């Protein structure tokens, strides 16, 4: 009996493996924890759609992921979390995901709004209600083959009561074409307590792309040259080791424009550069801050106009004085003093006659010259301020990189001990 069982074991394992990679639609009854009503609204979705997302009806989206918010899984949640509770839940969500992927050997990296949050302070943007990551095509096949519908239980100091997280693979992940608009999300990492989730998309090599070899495409429409993604950079996010694209700045600017990397007021928050935190502010404060910034900008523009007008008048007055004295028109007072080359010149006219100073040349500088000197000084100060601002920006970026490096070295030293 035992021998026959051992001989039949390979066949049993083969069948089990085949079942593991079949489509496994996680219906409400099979995954529910404590709810008695399915809030996903799945009945209104098109037949071939697996994950729901907030798209227009013309794109065949059906309805929202949940009936109350597009970034909650309606099988596990029936309400939205508060501001602080959501921030904490999203932090736990990305930490458990990154730790799990590292543990099972899946290479993944931050993208989209999550990567933008990393750019600012290595944290999730406080107004976000989900996270976005990417994996390679081979990694997606691996997850689908061995971890689809797997539940991971975490109990940590930050989650003392314990919490379950589920890896769910979209059975349409095998369709590589961007024409599959109803299934642009290939997988999700779902918090079965709060209903929040991480969208996981696959970066696939597009062998027929018009731009030639080395192009990566995602089903959600994003495309990248592979040298912008690989080799991945190691970093930290929400206090957990993470990876980001090699050319992260260029990737962010292409998706969100350069302003998103410098704008310090957005979505009811202001970025405190001393605390490196996005601080929520009320709408009145936002309006006042914007009004003050607009007024400051207008004043600066007016000053520049007045300065240009004054410079023009000074130049015209200077030219008139030089013409009255019979001197050629010059751009700056230093041009009136001959240099060594001019003194040796064979030309008898022009500035060379100044070799023999007249009585007027020996007198103190005129008020006009003082005005010219002041103008040059102001221009030098303006240029110095611009350089100082640029240096300050570089110092901040350098400090952020050094801080990241120190954290990584500290972790390495700790592991050596």
Automatic annotation (TrEMBL):
It is found in: Membrane. It comes from Lachnellula occidentalis. This is Protein MNN4. InterPro entries: FKTN/MNN4/W02B3.4-1 (IPR009644), LicD/FKTN/FKRP_NTP_transf (IPR007074). The keyword Ribosomal protein does not apply. GO terms for biological process: glycoprotein metabolic process. Residues 105-203, 211-257 form the LicD/FKTN/FKRP nucleotidyltransferase domain. The gene is MNN4_1. It is a single-pass membrane protein. Pfam families: LicD. Residues 1-18 form the signal peptide. Residues 290-417 are annotated as: Disordered. Keywords: Membrane, Signal, Transmembrane, Transmembrane helix. One of its GO terms (cellular component) is membrane. Residues 336-345, 355-366 have a biased composition (Polar residues). Residues 290-319, 369-411 have a biased composition (Basic and acidic residues).
